[in-house]
Amino acid sequence: MSATRYHCIAVRSATEQYDIHLGPGVLHQVGEKIQALTAGRKAFLLSHPSLYKLYGAPVEESLRAAGFAVEACLVPEGERSKTLLSASRLFTRLARGGADRHSVMCALGGGVIGDLAGFVAATYMRGIPLVQMPTSLLAMVDSSVGGKTAVDHKLGKNLIGAFYPPRAVFTDTTLLQSLPEREYLCGLSEIVKAGAIGDVELFQFIEQHIEAIRQREDAVLTTLIERAIAVKVRVVQEDPYEKGVRAILNFGHTLGHALEAATVYSAYSHGEAVAVGMALVSILSERLGYCTPATRSRLCALIEALGLPTTYTGVPPQRLLEIMTHDKKSLNGVVRFILLKDIGDVAFHQQVPVEVLQPLLAEYA
Ligand SMILES: NC(=O)c1ccc[n+]([C@@H]2O[C@H](COP(=O)([O-])OP(=O)(O)OC[C@H]3O[C@@H](n4cnc5c(N)ncnc54)[C@H](O)[C@@H]3O)[C@@H](O)[C@H]2O)c1
Ligand SMILES: [Zn+2]
After folding, report:
1. Nearest-ligand number for the alpha carbon of 114
2. How far apart are CA 336 and CA 338, in angstroms?
3. pLDDT over 60 (residue 2)
4. Would the CB of 161 count as within 6 Å of ligand 1?
5. In angstroms, what is the span from residue 38 Cα to ligand 1's centroid?
6. Which of 190, 226, 272, 286 is catalytic?
């Protein structure tokens, strides 16, 4: 396989310095690359049993060939594994397995594995090297980048966590072939978001390659992922601790989160909820004079072309309003939104009164 098929995205900021290796088959190279990053020779590979069966062997082979002793740690699939209990069990595995400060925690999985591995790596011995090997499209473009790690608490999702950047990220696009369709769409929703908030060329590229995206063509996927990562990296570099502009990464998420919460995280996947959120916010943006009707319809058309929803059902609009106005980001019944100005350009921290939101939510229910 020729080396030119790989891309290397260098993340360099005051808080994060690492490379994202992107391309088909990149997982076969993890060993030699990780060896250069740490003096440790022990690696712990966190994954789900199904993903480990599919993709564990090449990773382990590569690590062993580079002189690492590898121990696989497997946890069940789903958000229910992102807990302090799972973390605690992993601390025990690490301690019993003789992990020291230089041992490497490798996360082979979607956002659940990435967040859990990240949290454990951030806290075990006050921090050990973390390597992300994202397997879901969402993890490739979103959760493996930006340095946020967390586990859930019964009183809140991602309530306990730390900012802890990885030492390296290995994003192997061939893994996407086995990703279930709904999970794939979930990642596409975040890629549309990346285009909408900061890269009109990426947005246009998606519009022009709908069929190839449906077919999961490798070259097209690589471009999508590379451009979407670049948007996130740029925003995170500007605002690593989420004090200002990083808020734009939540475009479509205020409404999306409310929809997920109102349906107890069952009716809508995260990506579907965000798609509805982006569509409704674009209509809101048009009504408030932030964007033109053409910009609004361009965003809604792309969401629909990908097979993602632009309207919702099964939730009373009033319930969504209640959730949004009780959210920690809302103030005195005024909800703050990221509004669309143009494709690739948004305005953040925009206050929208409930009287404007209410009729819109009722109309698109
Ligand atoms: N840290 C961050 O910045 C950040 C950002 C966004 C989301 N998140 C977190 O990410 C999590 C969601 O991540 P997710 O959407 O990847 O969900 P996930 O990790 O649960 O993965 C979704 C499903 O797809 C399966 N899967 C993953 N890759 C596969 C592949 N290549 N082939 C076949 N099956 C595969 C998984 O086993 C799982 O069942 C949430 O916990 C969320 O809070 C974190
Ligand atoms: Zn999201």
Report:
1. 1
2. 7
3. no
4. no
5. 27
6. 190
Question: Do 115 and 232 share a domain, yes or no?
Answer: no
Convert the pLDDT of each residue in 189-202 to its tens digit.
Answer: 999 999 999 999 99
Banded pLDDT at 331 (limits 50, 70, 90): low
CA 303 – CA 280 distance, rounded (Å): 11
Can you tell me the distance from the alpha carbon of 85 to that of 294, in angstroms, rounded to the nearest whole number? 49
Structural domain for 134, as ranges? 3-178
Distance from residue 278's CA to the centre of ligand 2 (Å): 11
pLDDT at 4 over 60: no
Range name among 35-44, 63-72, 87-96, 263-272 with the lowest pLDDT average: 263-272
305 and 288, same domain (yes or no) = yes
Check pocket membership of 48 for ligand 1, CB cut-off 6 A: yes
Indicate if ligand 1 lies below 6 Å from the C-beta of 79: yes
3-class DSSP state of 59:
helix
pTM: 0.96
Q: What is the CATH number of the domain that holds 241?
A: 1.20.1090.10
Query: Can you say how many angstroms the Cα of residue 337 is from the centroid of all Cα atoms in its chain?
Result: 20
Q: Is the minimum distance from the CB of 188 to ligand 1 under 6 angstroms? A: no
Nearest CA to ligand 1 atom 18: 110
Which secondary structure element, helix H or strand E, spans residue 44, and what is its range?
strand 42-47
148 close to ligand 1 (CB < 6 Angstrom): yes
Looking at the DSSP bridge assignments, the partners of residue 69 are 42
Q: How confident is the model at residue 364 (pLDDT cuts 50, 70, 90)?
A: confident
